[in-house]
């Protein structure tokens, strides 16, 4: 197993380089970079609020000299060829130096650290709750297959899965926040204005109060898929020959289900945890936008609009590492759940 893990880690290196190399060249080839945006600001500032200047000099009609353009390129690091810039970026990320954000004008790592806790809180809690609820629910649906409980639960899950996250978020706010129908929860944010004046337990209560609605939106997609996957996986195991043999030997039905079939049924469920890790830690733009959460998803969206290349590449680096690590974790869990699997 150790040799396999080492081999996978070594394979991650060329995979990571391939992902970042292609992304870096595509991002830098996109028009409207930070230099162009800065030049537009200079031009509009010099032309009285953005009026078109017919006397703009020299390059690209920005109305600035070649010396200013060259200075801006040097300031933003665009005075070197793109392949040289990539190798410089690759060398700097060894020390987690992602450069400075063009929009926030501070180190990228500081910007991400300030936003990451929001997405991580929802991601980790969603991941734990999704598995804690989905697995027992899926097992119950499989055991009660064909009953009223199974039909109601399956139907509810299909309905929930068919609702887009943006629509679900809006509906939750309309019906349970803001006072249009029920005023049970706040409209957004992570905590109340008077949060810092509350006692410890009041702070916990306030956080939970703000977490409920966005947490539902975070969980709903993975929750429905995982519940149905657990149900179908267990049903498939219960129809196999080794289960029939166990029943023929006179074993109790609960022992057959929970001791023999369940362990094999859990394999496709628990091995998918690596994929969930990458999704949850990446944040969600739609949910963060609806509930006014300043997290990684919203940061990535704003960085894309502002052509903040350093922030975009830093987020890509983190997402790639988490995704690759998640796949490795999936394989390790596979071996733990099914000892018959030998990657060596």
Q: In CATH terms, what is the fold-level topology of the largest domain? A: MetI-like fold
What's the number of structural domains?
2
Proper CATH architecture of the largest domain: Orthogonal Bundle
Task: Give the CATH level 1 class of the largest domain.
Answer: Mainly Alpha
Describe this structure in words.
- With 344 residues, this protein is mostly helical.
- The chain has 2 domains: 35-95, no CATH class; 108-337, MetI-like (MetI-like fold, Orthogonal Bundle).
- It has 15 helices and no strands.
- The longest helix is centred in the middle third of the chain and has 39 residues, at 200-238.
- Residues 47-61 have low confidence and may be disordered.
Brief overview:
This protein has 15 helices and no strands. It is mostly helical and 344 residues long.
Highlighted features:
single chain; 344 residues; mainly alpha; MetI-like fold; 2 domains
Itemize the secondary structure elements and their pairings.
Elements: H1 2-29, H2 34-46, H3 66-76, H4 82-92, H5 108-143, H6 148-162, H7 165-176, H8 200-238, H9 241-248, H10 253-265, H11 267-270, H12 273-281, H13 285-290, H14 296-305, H15 309-337
Helix pairs in contact: 1-15, 2-3, 5-8, 5-12, 5-15, 6-8, 7-8, 8-10, 12-15, 14-15
């Amino acid at each position: 197993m150790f040799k396999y893990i080492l081999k996978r880690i070594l394979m991650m290196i060329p995979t990571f380089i391939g992902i970042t190399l292609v992304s870096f060249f595509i991002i830098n080839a996109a028009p409207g970079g930070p230099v162009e945006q800065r030049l537009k600001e200079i031009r509009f500032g010099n032309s009285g609020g953005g009026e078109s200047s017919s006397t703009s000099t020299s390059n690209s009609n920005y109305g600035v000299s070649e010396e200013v353009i060259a200075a801006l390129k040097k300031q933003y690091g665009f005075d070197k060829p793109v392949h040289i810039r990539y190798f410089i970026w690759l060398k700097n990320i060894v020390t987690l130096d992602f450069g400075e954000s063009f929009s926030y004008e501070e180190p990228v790592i500081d910007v991400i650290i300030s936003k990451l806790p929001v997405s991580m809180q929802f991601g980790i809690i969603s991941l734990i709750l999704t598995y804690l609820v989905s697995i027992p629910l899926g097992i119950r649906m499989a055991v009660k297959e064909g009953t009223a409980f199974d039909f109601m639960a399956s139907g509810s899950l299909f309905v929930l899965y068919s609702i887009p996250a943006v629509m679900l978020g809006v509906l939750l706010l309309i019906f349970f926040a803001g006072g249009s129908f029920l005023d049970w929860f706040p409209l957004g944010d992570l905590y109340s204005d008077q949060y810092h004046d509350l006692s410890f337990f009041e702070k916990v209560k306030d956080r939970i109060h703000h977490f409920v609605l966005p947490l539902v939106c975070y969980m709903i997609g993975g929750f429905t898929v995982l519940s149905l996957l657990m149900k179908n996986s267990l049903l498939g195991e219960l129809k196999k020959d080794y289960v029939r043999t166990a029943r023929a030997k006179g074993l109790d039905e609960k022992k057959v289900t929970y001791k023999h079939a369940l362990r094999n049924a859990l394999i496709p469920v628990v091995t998918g945890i690596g994929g969930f890790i990458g999704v949850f830690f990446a944040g969600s733009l739609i949910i963060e936008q609806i509930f006014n959460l300043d997290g990684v998803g919203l940061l990535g969206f704003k960085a894309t609009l502002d052509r903040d290349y350093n922030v975009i590449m830093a987020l890509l680096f983190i997402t790639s590492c988490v995704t690759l690590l998640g796949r490795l974790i999936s394989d390790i869990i596979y071996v733990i759940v099914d000892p018959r699997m030998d990657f060596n």
